[in-house]
Amino acid sequence: MRVLAIETSCDETSAAVVRTDGEAGPLAHGDPVAESVVILSQDIHKIFGGVVPELASRAHLTALPAVIDQALAQAGTTLEQLDGIVATQGPGLVGALLVGAMYGKGLAWTLSKPFLGVHHMEGHLFAAAIEDRTLKPPFVGLLVSGGHTQLLDVPEWGKYTIVGATKDDAAGEAFDKVGTLLGMAYPGGPKIEKLAKEGRPGRFKFPRPMLGELGHRGPDEYAFSFSGLKTAVLRAVQGSKDLEQDRADLCRDFQDAAIEVLVEKTAHLTEALGYPTVVVGGGVASNQTLLAALRKRLEGNARVLAGSLRLNQDNAAMIGAAGAWRMLRGERSGWDIEPRADLPVPELVGQTPRRCDAEAPRRRDAETP
Ligand code: KG4
Ligand code: ZN
């Protein structure tokens, strides 16, 4: 199975050619190989401090044909040689999704090839499978990016229970908004991690939101909330007499607080389920401080896998891996398929997601922190 994959859910225009060599089953991810991955990050949003949906759609429209051509050329293949086309169906910004999904569907229709819409979050889980062939469920998934924060129970590929999600800001969104408060250009996440290394811990007493719920077996046991933490940083910034002097310490204490909550909830769930593996995905999975803390906390109990920086960010290779796995199992989308900003997680087992469990379509819009 060899597919062209398209990802345009937010501000990366991406195309990839992905081949699956292996079997596709509940425990087998199909051994995905990314023959090419082209990722074009849209710079325009830097000016606005967040993603502007309308600009994102237009930039996708302009860039997508060339991005696809380059992905095909890098893989040394043509559209005619492919077995199918897959594209992100949701969740994400609806206008941005529309460009990629309709382009992919149109291509498939004209080529008389099968088309499949893919769930973006399932893609983030499959990213780790591209780089680690040994990855096998059951595992706990921690998906952290600019648009989502989700803790998942994954007993098998294709079976996902959202055990916890953010009630307000996503983890990456909190990093970005704190970055803006500290005068950093968007996205603030990587800059905060870098500067935090120079900071002294413990000067600012920031809250560990919802950590107290852990162990109480209530509906919020594994839920996250980052907006109060962001406000606490705002108050500290307002109270600072010398922001230049305090910036590194603020980064350190904010990051320590955010990471402690993510690590404790993930580790607790992993131990409660008795799973041997944790998969961390999404842009914030590039935070090496987070990964190191999680590995230390779970040492001897579970291994922690995360993709490379390139495959943690939004990219089409992960969509291709998830899509090829499903296509190999015989799945096809009908020609009436449409993108959905709030697409529910496929084959959701157990609890029904609350509103906050779905990836909010415009969480990362430009707005005041
Ligand atoms: O997955 P991604 O590329 O796009 C979304 O789906 O949102 O994630 C981007 C997010 C941004 O919020 C960015 O600040 C964050 O990932 N990020 C980081 C780091 N690298 C990227 N956050 C914290 N530490 C990092 N090193
Ligand atoms: Zn994403």
List keywords for this structure.
39% helix, alpha/beta, 369 residues, five-stranded mixed β-sheet, binds 5'-O-[(R)-(carboxyoxy)(hydroxy)phosphoryl]adenosine, disordered C terminus, globular, binds zinc ion
Question: Can you put this structure into words, describing what you see?
Answer:
- It is a single chain.
- The chain has 369 residues and is of the alpha/beta class.
- The protein is built from ten helices and ten strands.
- The protein has helices spanning 53-75, 94-111, 120-131, 171-181, 189-196, 227-239, 243-273, 288-297, 309-312, 316-328; strands at 2-7, 12-20, 32-41, 84-90, 115-119, 139-144, 149-156, 159-165, 277-281, 303-306.
- The strands form two sheets. It has a five-stranded mixed sheet, sandwiched between helices. A five-stranded mixed sheet has the order 8-7-6-9-10, with helices on both faces.
- It is globular, with a radius of gyration of 20 Å.
- It starts with a strand and ends in a 41-residue tail after the last helix.
- Mean pLDDT is 92; it is low at 348-369.
- Zinc ion is lined by residues 120, 124, 145, 147, 282, 314.
